[in-house]
Design brief:
The complex is a heterodimer of chains A (92) and B (453).
Chain A lengths: L2 E8 L4 H20 L3 E8 L2 H6 L10 E4 L2 E5 L5 H11 L2
Parallel strand pairs in A: 1-2
Antiparallel strand pairs in A: 1-3, 3-4
Chain B lengths: L2 H9 L16 H5 L4 H5 L2 H15 L3 E3 L6 H5 L4 E2 L7 E2 L23 H15 L4 E7 L1 H9 L2 H8 L1 H25 L3 E5 L8 H7 L1 H13 L3 E5 L8 H5 L5 E3 L6 H10 L3 E6 L1 H6 L3 H15 L4 E5 L9 H12 L2 H8 L1 H4 L15 E7 L6 H13 L7 E7 L3 H9 L7 E4 L2 E5 L5 H14 L3
Parallel strand pairs in B: 1-4, 4-5, 5-6, 6-7, 7-8, 8-9, 10-11
Antiparallel strand pairs in B: 2-3, 10-12, 12-13
Helix pairs in contact in B: 4-6, 7-9, 8-9, 9-11, 15-16, 16-17, 17-20, 19-21
Classes of the chains: A alpha+beta (92), B alpha/beta (453).
Chain lengths: 92, 453
């Protein structure tokens, strides 16, 4: 079973969100190196309609990480170990 | 009292006659002058032009010189990627890539883009410094530590706390020196912008941030400048420990409830700023959404120790009309703004006002944005409903919501400058004021007698 990660950010984030987004991308690169089966999608929101069309997005704080349709973070720097645990659980 | 004096009084937790406002323009001012964010951040002429344009359009009481939390990091060797519409991003962390802390040197006036930023400060102070308060924004020590070390710092805080203390001690010196440079260049307010502290607990904040950030505020105060701590993200649990660091002001974003932050901050004699929603309201909302939000926040913030501002820096493509709408709410000239905003449509609308003098009842026209969504408007409507109890045979009232064009036309015809306003028999009596039920009832009863009813 594959694991799909959606990283949702605003196309024009504020400075703080931009910094967090940078760290999230770095963490995603590290995860991709460790788990080549990961499908990572970066979604940049350009208008309000986009927000409502993203499956699994429940909390509108960005950047958000959604793993297999379940929102894991909202506007925070994730713990890579916690993400690994969720990914490994995802592949059973 | 001019705008600058108003802001400085509010930032020092004083009571003011009008709530001051500070639009945090950084890369947004690049869009105002038609250049890319990258060109703007690299050129003092653009930074100065952008701030001047923002001053002309948005009638602020204070403005940041610019909003760039990467200046110190870049001068310390972090690589940046610049963008056409966003602030630059840090993409390398020297201390995670072999550099030692001992190799890093505290940036001075000659390093990185500091010459550009400091030239901008001096010119903006020269142009606007007698009218409004000028903010110099310094990257806070914890955010700078993250730029230098990357996210490994979170594990190091648990495994090697002494290493984090060494790094924080260095970052304190950098932030303190940036504050010195801004003060020497002439700013009125130094804001220590440390958004990444929202990512840690109050305990971690007290251990790793408090000892390093508190002396920076003491230094700024010693230099007779106002100081603010900006935090973005959900810093709710940290507001109290932030207050204990003794800044004059704390500025929050939409993730923190303003009422809660105000209660804690005022307990410590700290003023509070914030927290207009950047995305839903400013970037994607309408002018009316922005007026509504500004009115609601000003209702909560009050006239003592509160500054209206966005939660963080305004996005590049935020419609200027939205920001002008906020300015109109602040300055009490919503009607004038609405007139200009929808002038072409208004010409087609013909509103007939009643012949108030000869009406058989006292007529109350209540001009609001919408009492269902704008808190001050709701309170005014509730006051009217309570005040006329038992007088229904002699008084008639109606709410006119300016989200409808007909109501804007009526507002203009009645010469109502701002919302919410109660007009009695065609005269604006309570303009942007919520009267007590007793006071309002007394006024209505007087109008009934005057009309001989």
């Amino acid at each position: 079973m594959g694991v799909r990660i959606d990283v949702v950010s605003l196309s024009e984030p504020c400075s703080a969100c931009n910094i967090i987004y940078g760290f999230v991308k770095e963490i995603m690169e590290k995860l991709k190196e460790r788990y080549s089966f990961l499908e990572i999608n970066y979604i940049e929101i350009k208008n309000l309609r986009d927000i409502y069309s993203i499956e699994g997005l429940e909390v509108e704080k960005f950047p958000a990480i959604i793993i297999n349709g379940e929102q894991i973070t909202a506007g925070t720097i994730p713990d890579i170990k916690e993400l690994e645990r969720i990914i490994l659980k995802g592949i059973g | 009292m001019n705008s600058k004096e108003l802001l400085l009084k509010a930032i020092h937790n004083g009571e003011v006659e009008r709530i001051p406002w500070v639009p945090f323009v950084g890369c947004h001012s690049a869009s105002l002058i038609g250049v890319s964010a990258e060109d703007y951040f690299k050129n003092d002429r653009y930074i100065v032009e952008g701030a001047t344009k923002a001053f002309e359009l948005y009638k602020p009481d204070g403005l940041p010189v610019t909003f760039d939390l990467q200046v110190e990091a870049e001068a310390l060797g972090c690589k940046l990627i610049y963008s056409a519409t966003n602030p630059p991003s840090v993409v390398t962390h020297p201390l995670a890539e072999g550099k030692r802390l001992e190799d890093l040197k505290i940036p001075t006036e000659d390093d990185g883009r500091f010459p550009i930023v400091l030239r901008s400060v001096k010119e903006i102070v020269k142009r606007l410094g007698d009218k409004i308060a000028i903010y110099g924004l310094v990257t806070g020590p914890f955010t700078l530590a993250l730029h230098l070390k990357g996210t490994d710092i979170f594990y190091q805080m648990m495994d090697e706390p002494e290493e984090v203390h060494k790094l924080m001690s260095f970052c304190q010196k950098v932030s303190m020196n940036s504050a010195r440079m801004y003060i020497d260049a002439g700013v009125d307010v130094v804001a220590i912008v440390d958004p990444m502290t929202s990512q840690i607990s109050p305990n971690s904040f007290e251990e790793f941030v408090t000892p390093y950030i508190t002396p920076i505020f003491a230094y700024i105060k010693e230099r007779k400048r106002a100081c603010s701590l900006f935090v973005c993200g959900n810093a709710t649990r940290n507001i109290e420990v932030m207050c204990k660091c003794q800044p004059d002001n704390i500025s929050i974003d939409e993730n923190v409830n303003l009422e809660y932050a105000k209660e804690i901050c005022h307990r410590y004699g700290v003023s509070v700023g914030g927290n207009i929603r950047l995305t839903v309201t400013m970037l994607f909302g309408t002018p009316l959404d922005n007026i509504r939000e500004a009115e609601n926040l000003m209702q909560i913030g009050g006239k003592k120790g509160y500054i209206l501002s966005p939660g963080c820096d305004i996005p590049f493509n935020t419609p200027p009309e939205n920001i002008k709408a906020i300015a109109s709410a602040v300055h009490g000239d919503v009607a004038e703004f609405m007139k200009q905003d929808i002038k072409s449509n208004l010409e087609e609308i013909n509103v007939e006002l009643p012949d108030y003098k000869n009406e058989k009842k006292v007529i109350l026209d209540v001009i609001t944005l919408d009492s269902e969504s704008c808190a001050p408007c709701q309170y005014v409507v509730e006051a009217v409903k309570s005040a006329i109890k038992g007088l229904e045979d002699k008084v008639e009232w109606k709410e006119y919501k300016i989200k409808e064009k007909e109501s804007v036309a009526r507002m203009i015809k009645l010469k109502v400058p701002n919302i919410p306003t109660i007009c009695i028999d065609g005269k604006p009596v309570y303009i942007s004021i919520i009267p007590s039920v007793d006071e309002l009832r007394e006024t209505i009863e007087r109008a009934i007698i005057d009309k001989g009813l």
